[in-house]
Amino acid sequence: MVTANFRFYAGLNDFLPPGRRQQTFTLDAAADATLKHRIEAAGVPHPEVALILVDGMPAGFDAMLRGGERVAVYPRFVSLDTATLPRLRDMPPAPPRFIADAHLGGLARLLRMAGFDTLYRNDWPDEELAAIAARDGRIVLTRDRELLKRREVAHGAYLRTLKPIDQLRELLARFDLAAAFRPFCRCMACNAPLRPVDKGAVAERLPPSVLVRHQHFTCCDACGRVYWQGSHWRRMRALLQALTKGAD
């Protein structure tokens, strides 16, 4: 067994038992255990980690320890200038693409409303969801820390809040999403892009009151849904504007 001293910073403490939070503690592991294995054995999923320092020097997830080292582990949103330091993983695509687990259907709809490519199904097993994320370079969104520990998951976010709007606020701050908002360009139901459509082409699918009061429509070619700028659209636009204004 090899023993080293670990200190986790900022929000990474949320994953630790109370007796280990905000302090240095020792971790024992087999001599062939990587830093990634040791960090996740402590309870912290690797996608939540942005920087590891071993005795003050940057280290990767595959690094091995000899014993006695001091290991500092930082999340992405700690105020540190890491631009010149080695990255633990490649950067996610820009704008970011997401995949949400079975418990985050409400968040998935809000992300699509804001214009982000977000996959969601409530029947994906963890292994399939992780495989899709790895194949497409997607950020896994979940409240299941064990899902984030899967080897295939390079990018992920553990949502600490429960309400979809609060979860969107979390992601807005964590991934600096405000500049990438493209509201109402994706179908909230199926994630496909929307396109403008002539009123006459969708008239038979519209309620009579909508047919009379509205002139501008978008359509989803994948699932056939039609969208217009009604009261729900105005509420959602106001919500997104408030979120992005708060992020300025």
Our Rg estimate from Cα atoms comes to: 22 Å
Number of helices, where a helix is a run of at least 4 consecutive DSSP H or I residues? 8
> Helix content range of the residues, please?
25-40%
CA-based shape: elongated
The assigned structural class equals: alpha/beta
What is the total tally of β strands? 12
Euclidean distance between termini CA atoms: 49 Å
Strand order of the largest sheet: 2-1-5-3-4
Unreliable residue runs: none
Largest sheet: 5 strands, mixed
Quaternary organisation: single chain
Strand content: 15-25%
The average pLDDT score comes to 93
How do the helices and strands follow one another from N- to C-terminus?
EEHEEEEHEHEHEHEHHEEH
Which key terms come to mind for this protein?
8 helices, five-stranded mixed β-sheet, Ubiquitin-like (UB roll), 248 residues, single chain, 20% strand, alpha/beta, four-stranded parallel β-sheet
Blueprint (SSEs and pairs):
Blueprint (H helix, E strand, L loop, with lengths): L1 E7 L16 E5 L5 H7 L7 E6 L2 E2 L11 E6 L22 E3 L4 H9 L4 E3 L5 H11 L2 E4 L2 H4 L7 E3 L5 H12 L18 E4 L1 H4 L5 H6 L3 E4 L5 E3 L2 H17 L1
Parallel strand pairs: 1-5, 6-7, 6-8, 8-9
Antiparallel strand pairs: 1-2, 3-4, 3-5, 10-11, 11-12
Give your account of this protein's structure:
This protein has helices at 35-41, 105-113, 126-136, 145-148, 164-175, 199-202, 208-213, 231-247; strands at residues 2-8, 25-29, 49-54, 57-58, 70-75, 98-100, 118-120, 139-142, 156-158, 194-197, 217-220, 226-228. By secondary structure, it is an alpha/beta fold. Among the domains are: 2-75, Beta-grasp domain (Ubiquitin-like (UB roll), Roll), CATH 3.10.20.30; 98-180. A five-stranded mixed β-sheet has the order 2-1-5-3-4, with no helix packed on it. The protein has a four-stranded parallel β-sheet with strand order 7-6-8-9, with helices on both faces. A three-stranded antiparallel β-sheet has the order 10-11-12. A hairpin with a 5-residue loop joins strand 11 (217-220) and strand 12. The protein starts with a strand and ends with a helix.
